Amino acid sequence: MKLQFLGANRQVTGSRYCLTAGGAKILVDCGMFQERKYLDRNWEPSPIGPEVIDAVLLTHAHLDHCGLVPKLVREGFSGPIITTAASADLVELVLHDSAKIQAEDVAFKKKRHRKEGRKVKHPVVPLFTEKDVSDTMRLIQPAPYEQVVRINDRVSVVFHDAGHILGSAMLEFEVSENGRPARLLFSGDIGQWDKPIVRDPSVFREGDFVVMESTYGDRDHPDRGDVESQLAQIINETVERGGNVVIPTFAIERAQELIYHISRLVHAGQIPRIPVFLDSPMAIEATDIFRRHRECFDLETWERITSGEPPLRFPELTMVRSTEDSKAINDLQGSAVIMAGSGMCTAGRVKHHLVHNIARPESTVLFAGYQASGTLGRQIINGNGDVRIHGRRWPVRARIEQIHGLSGHADRAALLRWLGHFQTPPRELFVTHGEQNAALSFADQVRDQMSWPVTVPEYQQVVRLD
User: Fold this and answer.
1) Same domain, 139 and 213
2) Domain that holds residue 24
3) Model pTM score
4) Are residues 53 and 146 in the same domain?
5) For residue 162, how many other CB atoms are within 10 A of its CB?
6) What is the pLDDT of residues 369-417, one digit of tens each?
7) What 3-state DSSP class applies to 416?
8) How far is Cα of residue 340 from the mean position of the Cα atoms in its chain?
9) Diameter over CA atoms, the chain
10) What DSSP string describes 168-225?
11) N or C: which end of the chain has fewer CB within 10 A?
């Protein structure tokens, strides 16, 4: 039995693990690399031959966990792709949207290169196409939470709620290897406790081998206080200056949470009734998927639904689908809240809104989620004096703010809380899905505090689970 680490190792994105056990070869996640220094890995052939992979299991629908599946299918994978029902719907949405954005970005780059007379070394093509996505979706097999899914007669898996985004899961494998049983746990992305819409993360009492994330493994979220109070203050102060609030928004979960909180502020009269735009066709469709999968909602959300106050609707909210309507937002007079993808500013419509607002001192760019190393979002958060957007340098004069209470990831204290439910230590804990400093720091803390055996694997490292 062995485990190979093929992404999200001493970095955050590109989640991918190959488990060889019980006569099966299984990919857990097949995610896209999004940090600039690792982008070339997306174009490399799959390190595991697609023809020898028996199944792909997806923990959830974020691109850094599912974004290379269409490429794998194009390369020849034809086995089952297993994930929860809600994730299956969201994966289809995310992958089609990514294919569309890639096609648009390719067309934009080609146009810019022609205009600049630039000669490029390699052809500018998308990583995968919408046809590749359609081929992928034919292989999807939805799996319910808390039910055993058999891979073969010696390997089974159960999907448990991860509390990260709608449909997110932790995977619990039961493996029989040489007549001896073993339990392996993959945490996926661990959510925070007491968040709106989704349920709290699942916890476990035991596991022989545990692979867990460490995105915030070296720090706790700042005292988040009341998220709605922070939102209200930022929106009100920006309106007073006459600017816009631009929120780079992850289409799944973060967009719906923001709508949830802003709707409460509007209903309570705590912010002015200014236009609020959700400028993301994917986020709009994701909201519809949320409504279809109410089985994933927590008690608080059900109480709002039954009270007659729709948590994902209010009069000032405009869902922006077309490119023309998106461009028209920047022609409006007065202030507005503009939520647009992508959440790390790596692509999509938010770049156009940044072009119109990042040099305006009266506007605010508000980050409501993690910004990976090397992304445009991280450059802005780090205080860069100017940033490159659409081939041009723009001075950063807008007010830059960040709300941590909306993070979909558990912080260091919550990660330790998750581990604290284990009644016996695992034979090995593998710390992944965190930048190197975060992963190493968290591993040290677990060793010091719990005396567990901990490994922080390197990219493509192979570990025998004996």
Assistant:
1) yes
2) 2-219+408-464
3) 0.85
4) yes
5) 28
6) 878 888 999 999 999 999 999 999 999 999 999 987 788 899 999 999 9
7) helix
8) 15
9) 71
10) -EEEEEEEEETTEEEEEEE--S---TT-SSBPPPP--S--SEEEEE-TBTT-PPP---
11) C
